[in-house]
Design brief:
By secondary structure, the protein is of the alpha+beta class. The chain has 1 helix and 2 strands, in the order H-E-E. It has a two-stranded antiparallel sheet. It starts with 14 loop residues before the first helix and ends in a 10-residue tail after the last strand.
Length: 77
């Protein structure tokens, strides 16, 4: 039998690790996109009211949500 020697080689990433890395990158991109959309929405709400309509995919019921801001515009009194 040949002798076993310890080697300090770096292991190549397995396909599972590569898939996990790709999924995390995709999730990061999606979260960045969501953040951008929410930021744009909030900026718009600060200027004027916004109504969001969401339809339930199962029953088709529509829910309306109105967003308004209570921040006063800066102006001289």
């Amino acid at each position: 039998m040949p002798e076993k020697t310890e080697k300090t080689e770096k292991k190549k990433p397995t396909t599972d690790q590569e898939q996990m890395k790709k999924r995390l990158e995709m999730l990061d991109k999606r979260l960045d996109n969501i953040d951008s959309q929410v930021t744009a929405l909030v900026e718009r709400v600060m200027r004027q009211p916004v109504t969001i309509e969401v339809a339930c995919p199962k029953c088709g019921s529509v829910v309306q949500v109105m967003l308004t801001s209570n921040v006063r515009s800066s102006g001289k009194s």
